[in-house]
Amino acid sequence: MASIIIHMAVTINALDLCDIDTHRDEYLVGTVLPDYVQKENAHYKEFMSERKYFNLTRFRTEHAEKLGNPVYQGYYLHLVQDMIFRDFMYNIHGFSPADRENVLKLYGDYQRLNGYLAHKYSIPVELLKNPDIISPDRYPDFTLNKAELAEETEKYHNINICPEGEYSFFTPEMAEEYVRLASDACIGEMSALRGEKEHINEFDYSWVRFFK
Length: 212
Prior knowledge:
The protein has helices at 4-17, 24-36, 56-62, 70-92, 100-120, 125-129, 146-153, 172-193; strands at residues 45-48, 51-54, 207-208. It has 212 residues and is mainly α. The protein has one domain. Strand 1 and strand 2 (51-54) form a beta hairpin. The longest helix has 23 residues, at 70-92.
C-alpha cells in the first residue's frame, strides 16, 4: 500500500545505515518487484481468522536457496515494509481503506511526497524507467510487468514539483516516522537472514480484515 517511492526510500535508508554500497540497484529492483510482478498473490498475504498478515516465513521457505541474492532480498524487504506499513497505518494511526475517499486522499499525499522523498534519499528514479539494468536472469522466479511499471513511472517526469494543496493524512512527518520504523525492521531482517538473530513474528503485525 505504500508507494514505490516510499519503498525505495526505506530500502535506500536501510542500505545506508548498514553501509551496504554494492548491488544497490539489485536491491532496489527487488524492492519494486512485488508491486509490478506477474504472480498470483505476489505479496504473500494470507488469512488468519478475522485478520490478515504477510507470510514472510513462506517466502523464505520457497526461496531459501536464493536469499543471498540482493534482488530476492529486496523483494523480501518490500514485504517487510508492507507489513510495517499496515501496522503503522491501521493499528497505530487508525487509517481505514474501507472508505474509498480515504484511499484517494492517501494517493494524493503520495504525489505530494514523491519529490521530497526522491530528493532526501537520492532515489534513482531512472532505474524505474530502465529496470533492465539488472538482468531478469537475476530473478528467474518472477516476471516483471514492464508495461505497468512504465505507465506508473510516467507520473515521475516532474517528480521534483510538489503539487499544490495540503496533506490530507500522510504528512512528511509521518513518512519520516514510517521510514525509520520500516528501516529498523529491514535491518533486523537482513541480520536474521544472516543467522545473527531471530526473524520477526509476522503474526504480531496482522490487521483486521477490512474486506471479506
